[in-house]
Design a protein that fits this description.
The complex is a heterodimer. Chain A is α+β, with helices and mostly antiparallel strands. Chain A folds into three domains: 2-297, no CATH class; 304-416, no CATH class; 424-481, Orthogonal Bundle (Arc Repressor Mutant, subunit A). In chain A, 40% of the residues lie in helices and 19% in strands. In chain A, helix 12 (424-437) crosses helix 15 and helix 14 (452-463) packs across helix 15. The relative contact order of chain B is 0.14. By secondary structure, chain B is an alpha/beta fold. The chains are: A alpha+beta, B alpha/beta. The interface between A and B is large, with 29 and 44 residues.
Amino acid sequence: MIITGKEHNWEIVCGLEIHCQIISEAKIFSGASTRFGADANENVSFVDAGMPGMLPVLNGYCVHQAVKTGLGLRAKINNYSEFSRKNYFYADMPTGYQITQFLYPIVGEGVVTVDLDDGSSKDIRIERMHIEQDAGKSIHDIDPNKTFIDLNRAGVGLMEIVTKPDFRSPEEAGAFLRKLRSILRYLGTCDGNMDEGSMRCDINVSVRPEGSDELRTRCEMKNVNSVKFVMQAIENEARRHVEVYENGGSIEQETRRFDPATGLTKALRKKEFAHDYRYFPEPDLPPLVLSDEYIRKVADELPELPDAKKARFVDKLGLTKYDASVICENKEVADFFEKAAAGHDAKKVANWLMGDFFAMLKRKNINIEESPVTAENLGALVELIEKNVISGKIAKDVFEIMSETGDSPAKIVEEKGLKQVTDAGAIEAIVDRVIAENQDKVGAYKGGKTGLMGWFVGQVIKESKGKANPQVVNSLLAEKLN
Amino acid sequence: MAKITSLTVHETLDGLKNKEFTALELAKAYLAAMEEKRALNAYVLETAETALAQAEESARRYRDGTARALEGIPLGIKDLFCTKGIRTTACSHILDGFVPPYESTVTANLFAAGAVCLGKLNMDEFAMGGSNETSYYGPAVNPWQEEKKLVPGGSSGGSAAAVAANICAAATGTDTGGSIRQPAAFCGVAGIKPTYGRCSRYGIVAFASSLDQAGPIAKDVRDCALLLNVMAGYDAKDSTSVKTETPDFTKALGQSVKGLKVGVPAEYRPTGLNAEIAACWDKGIKILREAGAEVVEISLPHTRYALPVYYIIAPAEASSNLARYDGLRYGLRVPGEHLDNMYVNSRTAGFGVEVKRRIMVGTYVLSAGYYDAYYLKAQKVRRLIRDDFVRAFNDCDVILTPTSPTTAFPIGDAQMKENPINMWLNDVFTVSVNLAGLPGMSLPAGLSANGLPLGLQLIGRAFDEETMFKAAAVLEKEIGFERLK
């Protein structure tokens, strides 16, 4: 995206830091549960509450999840990493420091390929990913004079993914977040729900004259919680920078707050008031050393990821790139599709899936897992069309019934007597009747109004209650009228 | 017969086994002695009820024949150890009224072995100090001199004073820069700081995590071994505790030191070293040599950097470890208009001067722009200090030094008050051991001309406490130090 300026155009330079909650039963440094929806302060151990003498113990499963994620980001897994303390006082951070990774993160440089709307793709470089603990929640709206603290989230494992400043438009950032979410869900390492806060995004934005490679002062917006808001925040912040520069001003490095109500950003904290976090190596935890063998073992567990799946759907099943990328964004959809397409015309299955099937999910406001139409039945429906048992038009009616009853299409077709009539004798009787009853139109047709052929076909199919095979109808009519 | 409170742990265990007295009689005798010696201010909390209940259980077990390793042994517990249901304050105002809902691993091990809890012992606030004077409850008093009140040393001052005064059979201590060994030396008792990772730090109020280590303070070397047997062991709840078998340390006692190489570091004999302390050290060297050990001169060239390195790393870690005392969840809260005011008010009122000083130093050395010059540099020098010991242990099996450059000094000593550095200098012989993570122990080695105890320090290879115990037992036997009765 290029912003038009007075003298020259401007280019956006943007990088993201994404906090992703690790899917795990227990918190990253304590045995407490991570169960969502528990009562306030129910999932809190003495470690999480920062009680005297309590010590963190690293949850090996969180490490496993992080390594898996790193591999999914096509990133280098570091054999040696270290934990550090990030020191700051806040009421929902009971120890007064966050255990994180600073100089030596568990995951190094990687890359995520994003698909853009114009059909092109772009590689976004990952700078690093580290693991750390989450803070608790301060609740300010229960009492006008008091803040309440819920430590259920305190100590839940996070992965912080940092990109290089590779985004040149809000769309690229949006596409990246969707792709990242897709990868994380494929891996099962983070549920990626931005609205529930299990994936949170910090945005760094600056602008520069188009074609230049300078890096100007950036501003940071913290905790933006939807893809749409991220895109809005980038665009509006970039436009603000342009306006400031074009009015002869300068941008100060600061943290800003994105206001979802207005779509604008507001200054929160200037650089000189930035915290001095006094990072130092966490003395309660030894360095984390991962063997090549361990990393190989995790790599062996990786599922097929969206890019590979998409390529396979294009190469082996003949889908278009666009269809494949829509279907592969969500693993459940891709799995459903593969099951439905097994043994059938994959392209037709894809059309049904992305057309009537998605529309049905949307109308019913349900997930694919809750669909009354099973993958097998969707495949069977396509097969009935392929084998000329029903027409495409009847199939739509059958699908509607399937989406109410969950019955197999064969059963519905049988029970409702919807089988397509290909018996030329039966169809011929209808053709003859229609011709006999519409002699005026026959005259007009013969007089040169050949466009009436369509009307005749429609009449015959209507008379057959949709069951007449259109091809047979066509050839019979052509025979009798010409 | 001597008073039963004058007995060592191993003598007491014999007495209990031989039914010379019961565990309940023993506990009552100690509780009476504690009451009698309250002026020492060694205990900040007496737990008579707990003690009597535990002693009754112990008495029953002796009757049943199910007595455990330390059955009925009355212990004092340094107030740095969290004790379930028993107030634990680290002798800081900021932990006022804090009653932990959990038990430290070390005390849990001791009580599971039948030990009896007499109460919580005085110490320097958050273990920061070398004289017990920084305690919120005022200093414990050294029992060796009645006329002029002397410090018991610190930070485990209450532990050393109580053991010396026979108001506990033995005590737990912790040692970050000398906090077990120096008070042990000042009070004429034995104390061991085990190898870093030997004892779990779980449930011990943290001062400097990479240096803190728990250990016993006891009447003699054998008692130290008996207690350490129980206190030590891998603990999954402390990631820095080491997965290694705990040997029976008493097996090292009474073994010959013939052929043992005893290192004597030149750097520990600076010009101006107190003559009595130098003489005491020489006596130790002579004893070991005459017992067949080979005495070798060694060099620990980075010794002179140990104190500055320690007083960067320990405060740095402390500044972070003490951030949790914010008035929010437990302990003292002094209200304020906003959250930040409440922090400031609570911490201003809750921490003493020495603790504040170290938080300030620690915060400074970790701050942006100073980290590399102080903390990072200190970590590098720490490695050099450790390497000194690794090299030295190529030439010797155990190292012998004095424990402290001075004997116990008066409470409120003007010179110590004048400049905190003077107080910090007390740690000069002990801090290197913590920085290198090695085991060190102090044992009483004699009395100064004015009748105050002197201590000798043994330093071992990592996880080789046994060699240290072996040498300590030989020294102890030859020295024949006379404890207070």
